[in-house]
Amino acid sequence: MQIKRYCFFSFLLLGLFLQAQDSDITNSLYDTYDKYREEVLDKRRIKHHEIQPLISEYKENPKFKVKVVGRSIEGRSLSLISIGSGPTDVFLWSQMHGDEPTATQAIFDILNFFDSADFTTEKEAMLTNLTVHFLPMLNPDGAERYQRRNLLGIDINRDALRLQSPEGKTLKRVRDSLDADFGFNLHDQSTYYNAERTEKPATISYLAPAYNYEKEINAGRGDAMKVIVFMNNIIQKYAPGQVGRYNDDFEPRAFGDNIQKWGTRTILIESGGYANDTEKQEIRKLNYVSILSAIYTIANKNYEDIALGDYEIIPENDRKLFDLKIENATYGLLGNEYTIDVGIHRLEVDKEGNNDFWYSSRIIDQGDLSTYYGYETFDASGYTINPGKASPLILSGPAELNQPDVLKMLKSGFTYARSKNIPSDWDSFVLPIHVTSETYEIPELQLEVGINATFLLEKDGVIEYAVINGFLIDLKSGKGDFKNAMIYR
Hints:
Elements: H1 2-31, H2 48-59, E1 65-71, E2 77-84, E3 88-94, H3 102-115, H4 120-129, E4 130-135, H5 140-145, H6 166-178, E5 182-188, E6 194-195, E7 204-207, H7 219-238, E8 243-245, H8 255-261, E9 265-271, H9 281-300, E10 317-318, E11 321-333, E12 336-350, E13 357-367, E14 373-379, E15 384-386, E16 389-395, H10 403-411, E17 414-419, E18 434-436, E19 455-459, E20 462-468, E21 471-474, E22 487-488
Parallel strand pairs: 3-4, 3-5, 5-9, 7-8, 11-14, 16-17, 17-18, 18-22
Antiparallel strand pairs: 1-2, 2-4, 6-10, 7-9, 11-12, 12-13, 15-19, 19-20, 20-21
């Protein structure tokens, strides 16, 4: 009996020691991140040609093995970068959808980490127990256009059975050739997902995909769930309450579900939204920290001791976030007044070349939105929604306007400025007032889903706030997280 107790306590102490090691490396990874961040990739809209010089550097580096494993429809190379000599194969692939590049950036941060002279003990544990493989951009043709689908117009993530896309064929061939033990399926999700029944965005969401309709849990899927629980605990340190869990209904065409079915412990990671992180650079950092920590715990096999039931504790993903929520506003229609909430999304419109974007906002929902949330919420109790007008002043060009002039115009009820000349290469306007041609007909305001979110908020006869293209501006202070207004020709 004493021997059994001794063994039990020895095992318990070993588990606590390994957990402490995981915690230590996580803290260190977070604190030192800037040292490994790949500065060349400093915004979301990454193109294939931008990562090729980085891949070429790793090809010349003896620590790494780099090979072209396939080509896209347009002939762009699909490269696999590998490091380590261990018997357990970990395979990470990103940007299956061309407009989902957050983890692609994080992969190059992780590669910088492995190439550094730091964390020698931890890296030795990882690279002697594991061989880690990265396919950083699976859909380069989609990335070129910043679109979800490939050039064939199909969703690669629904091509696991028919395998009509060369990109899907490559993913299947690489997975099979590696017979990967673990797979990280790396995506971005809408920034409008929230953790169920909370106002917090689902900054990171996870899923251990099902491999059959019954959603059974075998040993492999159970291991994936345990690794997810481990990663969730890490994210909670830096984005508390901002983790969601995807619905696990089986999708027989999806790669994640099939790769789980084919015997690879598959972990889906979706990068969502984070307040004031338009380019998702903080989320990129969270990917870096959590993925590297997961690789470390896989190397040490610490995940095996995690309670499987903790996976179900992670809140489910919900989709009840707006960029801006106006609540309890008074809205007049046909002689009557109504109390109404307005939910607004700021939709990105790509500029020519797909390297940058501007916003065109829309009212997405209105009515009782009390079960919804906003990244920014304004209680408009006591305020009346009023339409804006076009200023009678005709500008020779929009460059004549400045911020003080625009604030005066908004306070006077003008949300549109007319101009004789609008530069042909202007697709939006940097000040909070819409610019129109001399002949553009200003639409009458009738709140409805789908229209541009532009109106004024008046209280006791004074216009105190303006909503211009979905951005709220405080007219007393001039403050507001404004990005751009529209141009109507």
